[in-house]
Amino acid sequence: MPETGFYDVVASRRTVRDFLPDPVPPEVLDRCLDAARLAPSSSNLQPWEFVVIRDPAVRRAANAICLDQLPAKTAPLLLALVTRRDTWRRNRDEILRVFESRGPLRKRQEAYYRKIIPAIYTAGPFGLLGPLKRAFSRAVSLVRPTPNFMSRADVRVMAHKSAALAAATFMLALRAEGYDSCPMEGFDPWRAAKLLALPRGAEVAMFLAVGKRSDKGVWWDRILMPREWTVREL
Ligand SMILES: Cc1cc2nc3c(=O)[nH]c(=O)nc-3n(C[C@H](O)[C@H](O)[C@H](O)COP(=O)(O)O)c2cc1C
Asked: How far away, in angstroms, is 67 Cα from ligand 1 center?
């Protein structure tokens, strides 16, 4: 029976490492992917791509790249979640196109997407501009609050943050549908990039094993850090 109340969904989501062979119906997967697409993202640039691995040969290779972890080997479905910081121009243009289709572009929207976003995402040849931008931001920050204009490493972090939120939304949607998942960062990133033919700037954030939990699926009861270690008031 699918969990429907939000807190029930959150509480019943566990990392599942052993799955039943039952396939994930396409309409369930589609609903969960569409839920993930609604996740918040930095500047709404949605720098992610879910790659659904269907081809059996690619799947075998992907399992090996996931170090043959049990969730990868037993799940009826495996996806790769890829960060796509390389798509910022295309996605920025799409945002501007939609804004313009809705009426005259506001000056602030235009300045943000035409000036600030390129300033953040452009790292220059060999990424050399990045450390300069970061140092400049740090220097201004000594005088007044300033955004970080970001090195390439900062942009990577930004893309991974957004992708992780999409992953969380996807996993909770699966749970709401009565399905389970295992996020995996235990994999070989170089072989993963090659297998998925990723362009420069794209990286696998995590693989996601998906299916229904077997009765050996959850390996231990939750272990939670004490609340005061993870929540602080100031
Ligand atoms: C980014 C990320 C990467 C993870 N990688 C793996 C992994 O490679 N293999 C694995 O078995 N579990 C992996 N996990 C699952 C965690 O071990 C799990 O979330 C944690 O132990 C808490 O358990 P719970 O999800 O059941 O609450 C990963 C979780 C996250 C968020």
From this structure: 15
Q: Rounded distance, CA 8 to CA 219, Å?
A: 20
CA contacts within 13 A on the Cβ side of 228: 0
17 lines ligand 1 (CB under 6 A): yes
Give the global pTM: 0.96
Q: Is the CB of 45 under 6 A from ligand 1?
A: no
Per-residue pLDDT of the chain (234 residues; tens, 9 = 90+): 566 799 999 999 999 999 999 999 999 999 999 999 999 999 999 999 999 999 999 999 999 999 999 999 999 999 999 999 999 999 999 999 999 999 999 999 999 999 999 999 998 888 889 999 999 999 999 999 998 888 999 999 999 999 999 999 999 999 999 999 999 999 999 999 999 999 999 999 999 999 999 999 999 999 999 999 999 999
Looking at the fold, whether 166 and 52 belong to one and the same domain comes out as yes
The response to whether residue 206 sits with its C-beta less than 6 Å from ligand 1 reads yes
Closest ligand 1 atom to residue 66 Cα is 8
Instruction: Please identify, among 124, 151, 178, the residue that sits at the C-terminal boundary of a domain.
Output: 151
What burial class does residue 96 get, using C-beta atoms within 10 Å of its C-beta: 0-12 exposed, 13-18 middle, 19+ buried?
A: middle
222 lines ligand 1 (CB under 6 A): yes
Last residue of a domain, one of 114, 136, 151: 151
What residue numbers bound the domain in which 108 lies? Answer: 88-151
